[in-house]
Design brief:
Rossmann fold; binds magnesium ion; 15 helices; alpha/beta; 19 strands; binds adenosine-5'-diphosphate; nine-stranded mixed β-sheet; ten-stranded mixed β-sheet
């Protein structure tokens, strides 16, 4: 019987959360847009039987950091349970709910980061197991925990496995296969799926679609704006709960734009090939970006992953005029598997051929040594390290993807030996760390430094280049 708010949880469940909480089947999934109230619903469902002596519930995520971060379920549980008789045990990450008679009910927060982590729960029994952000987890870990579902003697509650997730992440496909199938709000129901009062059923499992609009507690516009820093496809998945967006590329072919070099001028072409604007080369500041991967220090890593990594040097032109400085023109690219000495020579060659005002080198790996080698050799070349930021590649590439989605990055239409290879890498890339991304990395740095440097900043040190 659904009674919310109950004596522990003072949240009023929203209509979609109520549908989810009212389910008494074994397995149910709340899936879709971020902000739909899914995590809160898993928590509320855990508390549904918190007044039954001996009841025990488990909520897992991939790692405890994500549960404990501000805004994560653990701090939120502290807000929600602040005025209740429930007590928190930090070492066990467990709430206990004292009963008038009999043992307390409990709610434990756990994690499943590595395959062996599931065995941490091998000797426990739960009547409720919930998985938050299910697409971050492995299917075998999910299925294993079903074996921890036991109705203890004298406890009259239904056994429930509940999960919630945004689309995307490494487990997207198995989660979609298990609950969502080809469902979409605008298409016919997939074969074998039935719909009852907004709950979709497939092979006895329930799926409640979640939309941001279903959560009146959230300021929708603000929330959508806060997703703006993410790559476009991730954003679409999170904001619309769109499961049909496959784990394909992070970049789309229709975002590609080209330029033609007409004498000393760049003709930037729009999506249909018409001229967008004409910019003299002289009106641009030129800089280079370097991804030093592939030098000898990377050989170990290459041996482990079986891949071969390349060093990349790219030459970029950015119009100086503030109205046009959002555009980036990729003028040249050098790509090779070289030692650090040869990479240094490669940068020197690019420098003397293209005269970039600044050279930006990836901070990680060999960046520091390269900066010193360039500064100490003859001629002296000044290079800078790309400001360290987020280390995950997909997030680092987000400014590039956003720029490309807006049609602000231009590649040479003619006379280039490297453009097709660059496009192939772009369009194949899903953000997975095993895929080659050296050209994307170098371009991602360009988008980062171009965004960060206000007008003029890139021209501070031109005199230092005595090459
Ligand atoms: N029933 C509710 N009452 C009040 N606030 C809620 C309720 N459900 C969700 N929220 C709040 O809305 C925000 C988004 O909810 P959350 O459960 O994190 O969404 P999701 O997991 O789908 O991204 C959170 O701040 C959460 O505390
Ligand atoms: Mg959530």
């Amino acid at each position: 019987m659904l009674t919310f708010p109950n004596k522990y949880c003072q949240l009023d469940a929203h209509p979609n959360q109520q549908k989810f909480l009212a389910l008494d089947c074994l397995e149910a999934f709340f899936g879709g847009a971020a902000g739909g109230g899914k995590s809160a619903a898993l928590f509320m469902a855990a508390l549904q039987y918190a007044d039954v002596p001996g009841y025990s519930a488990l909520i897992v995520r991939k790692d405890t950091q994500r549960l404990a971060l501000s805004g994560g379920l653990i701090p939120r549980s502290h807000q929600w349970l602040a005025d209740s008789p429930a007590r928190w045990n930090e070492a066990r990450r467990t709430w206990s709910f004292p009963q008038e008679k009999g043992p307390p009910a409990t709610l434990t927060f756990g994690y499943l980061s590595r395959p062996a982590d599931k065995f941490r729960y091998a000797s426990s029994e739960f009547q409720y197991i919930a998985f938050d952000e299910l697409t971050e987890l492995r299917e075998e870990d999910y299925l294993f925990l079903f074996s921890r579902l036991r109705r203890a003697k004298n406890i009259d509650v239904r056994l429930r496995v509940r999960s919630a997730s945004n689309p995307g992440n490494s487990g997207h496909l198995w989660v979609r296969e298990r609950f969502v199938r080809d469902w979409s709000p605008t298409a016919d129901l997939p074969e074998g799926m039935t719909s009852q009062g907004g709950v979709l059923w497939f092979e006895g499992r329930a799926f409640v679609p979640s939309l941001i609009a279903d959560n009146p507690s959230l300021h929708r516009e603000e929330y959508l704006a806060s997703l703006g820093h993410l790559p476009p496809l991730t954003r679409q998945r999170l904001a619309c709960g769109d499961w049909s967006v496959q784990e394909k590329g992070q970049f789309r072919a229709e975002w590609l734009r080209y330029f033609i070099l007409a004498g000393e001028q760049y003709e930037l072409l729009g999506p249909t090939g018409t001229t967008l604007t004409v910019i003299p080369q002289q009106a641009c500041r030129r800089f280079a970006t370097v991804d030093p991967a592939g030098t000898s220090a990377d050989l170990d890593a290459d041996a482990r992953t079986g891949s071969r990594s390349f060093s990349v040097v790219q030459v970029w032109d950015q119009p100086r005029h503030p109205d046009l400085s959002r555009f980036l023109i990729l003028r040249d690219q050098q790509r090779d598997q070289v030692s650090i000495n040869d990479l240094c020579k490669m940068i020197r060659r690019v420098h003397s051929a293209w005269r970039p005002e600044r050279i930006w080198i990836e901070q990680e790996k060999l960046g520091h040594s390269l900066v010193c080698m360039l500064a100490n050799g003859t001629p002296t070349i000044r290079a800078d390290l790309v400001p360290p930021g987020i280390s995950d590649k997909a997030t680092r590439a987000a400014p590039l993807a956003n720029k490309m989605e807006r049609g602000e990055v231009f590649l040479p239409k003619y006379n280039s030996s490297w453009r097709q290879g660059f496009e192939r890498e772009l369009l194949a890339w899903t953000g997975n760390s095993r895929e080659p991304s050296d050209q994307i990395d170098a371009a991602a740095y360009a988008a980062i430094v171009a965004d960060q440097s206000g007008p003029g900043i890139l021209t501070i040190h031109p005199v230092l280049f005595r090459g």
